């Protein structure tokens, strides 16, 4: 499948959102949107209303409704999600259970240490990128090289 393209400006904005959560010592999730009709460029970051704690985030029903309304009005879809962890980056059972993206080929990214030290320059060193397989499993994918599923571009 074609890799998703993440513009550095969108990445920069996303890291700011995630760090705002980290300053409260809380996880935070952000969503990357693309046109529903297709397109591989992640043009927009969306921060859903969320309930968070140190090792937890949850989108209440009204937040999911607001997200669905936003997607419908903008003819958009959620192509990928990214969230922070207090320490190590991995895809937990809860992450799989509560994933907002659920289509085969969707990406779910996790950043360690509340993204406190992550910059556009260090992003690919720190992030873990998981892809939902056709069998419904979240598989770790390489951050670089020919099999990379995400390209960071100016
Ligand atoms: Zn998690």
Q: Would you write up a description of this structure?
A:
This protein is of the alpha+beta class. The protein has one domain (4-153): Cytidine Deaminase, domain 2 (3-Layer(aba) Sandwich), CATH 3.40.140. It is built from 4 helices and 10 strands. A 6-stranded mixed beta sheet has the order 3-2-6-7-8-9. Strands 1-10 form a two-stranded parallel sheet. Strand 8 and strand 9 (138-141) form a beta hairpin. The protein is globular and about 35 Å long. It binds zinc ion. The site of zinc ion (ZN) has 5 residues, from loops.
Features:
154 residues, alpha+beta, Cytidine Deaminase, domain 2, six-stranded mixed β-sheet, two-stranded parallel ribbon, 4 helices, 31% strand, binds zinc ion, JAB domain-containing protein
SSE layout:
Blueprint: E1 4-7, H1 8-23, E2 29-35, E3 44-46, E4 51-53, E5 56-58, H2 61-74, E6 76-84, H3 93-97, E7 107-111, H4 123-126, E8 128-132, E9 138-141, E10 150-153
Bound molecules: zinc ion (ZN).
Zinc ion (ZN) binds next to loops.
What's the short version?
It is built from four helices and ten strands; from the N terminus they run βαββββαβαβαβββ. It has helices at residues 8-23, 61-74, 93-97, 123-126, and strands at 4-7, 29-35, 44-46, 51-53, 56-58, 76-84, 107-111, 128-132, 138-141, 150-153. The radius of gyration is 14 Å and the shape is globular.
Residue runs with pLDDT of under 50 for 5 or more positions: none
How many helices? 4
Could you estimate the helical fraction of the residues in percent?
25-40%
The molecules bound to the chains, other than polymers, are: zinc ion
Number of domains: 1
pLDDT averaged residue by residue: 95
The general outline is globular
User: What's the N-to-C terminus distance?
Assistant: 21 Å
| Overall CATH architecture | 3-Layer(aba) Sandwich
Summarize the main sheet.
6 strands, mixed
Strand arrangement, largest sheet?
3-2-6-7-8-9
Q: C-alpha Rg, in Å? A: 14 Å
Counting helices, strands and paired strands, the structural category is alpha+beta
Q: Helix and strand string, N-terminal first?
A: EHEEEEHEHEHEEE
Organism: Xanthobacter oligotrophicus
Protein name: JAB domain-containing protein
